[in-house]
Write a structure and sequence with these properties.
Elements: H1 3-32, E1 37-38, E2 44-49, E3 59-69, E4 72-86, E5 97-101, E6 119-122, E7 127-130, E8 135-136, E9 153-160, E10 167-172
Antiparallel strand pairs: 1-3, 2-10, 3-4, 4-5, 5-9, 6-7, 7-8, 9-10
Bound molecules: FE2/S2 (inorganic) cluster (FES).
FE2/S2 (inorganic) cluster binds at residues 104, 106-107, 109, 122, 124-125, 127, 147.
Length: 187
């Protein structure tokens, strides 16, 4: 192999290597679809002990899980937040806990609980919801609530830890599309 052939061989090898590196994400795109964010929504997440919830006072709790952003996967990241409302004073598992998504179904702002748990309010366009997540008219003007559906209630269960005797709140966290009058899973 003379010097010229050697140079051609080296530059051809380099070009192939560069093309492979540059092209890999594109291959991933076509094989695995567009970059997406996964929230692991189909599993129950253990959030908090029931005894740490004050009856009648909503508490916002983060939901941790696996997050996939483009092609980077991270474990134990905050994938969302839920409002938990404990509805019983009892210390047994027959008490109920309601789990509501903190995402406003209008355009996705985080709803707040400014009045000590009697209602939720979305700060973006001043929408009000009852403690059960149902839409309420504007408390000042009486105007109809413009949000297309009530706050999204999430599947929630209480699980007893036999070792410690603690009752835990577990929630199946899901994200729903905003702007629709019915629930469709998806960010
Ligand atoms: S985003 Fe909540 S009322 Fe508009």
């Amino acid at each position: 192999m003379n010097r010229r052939e050697l140079l051609e061989w080296v530059s051809s090898g380099l070009a192939t290597a560069v093309a492979t590196v540059v092209g890999l994400p594109g291959v991933g795109y076509f094989l695995g679809g567009a970059p997406r964010e996964s929230s692991g929504e189909s599993q129950f997440s253990r959030l908090i002990k029931v005894k740490d919830l004050v009856p009648g006072r909503p508490m916002m709790v983060p939901v941790m899980g696996q997050k996939v952003d483009a092609w980077i996967q991270s474990d134990q990241q905050a994938i969302g937040r839920v409002w938990l409302v404990r509805e019983s004073q009892s210390g047994s598992t027959d008490q109920t806990v309601r789990a509501l998504s903190s995402v406003c179904p209008h355009m996705g702002c985080q709803v707040q609980a400014p009045s000590g748990g009697k209602s939720f309010v979305c700060p973006c366009h001043r929408a009000s919801f009852g403690a059960d997540g149902q839409r309420l008219p504007d408390p000042k003007t009486g105007e109809r609530n413009h949000v297309p559906r009530d706050l999204d209630e999430l599947e929630c269960r209480l699980v007893r830890d036999d070792e410690t005797g603690d009752n835990w709140v577990e929630v199946r966290y899901e994200k729903f599309k905003t702007g629709l009058d019915h629930r469709v899973v998806g960010a």
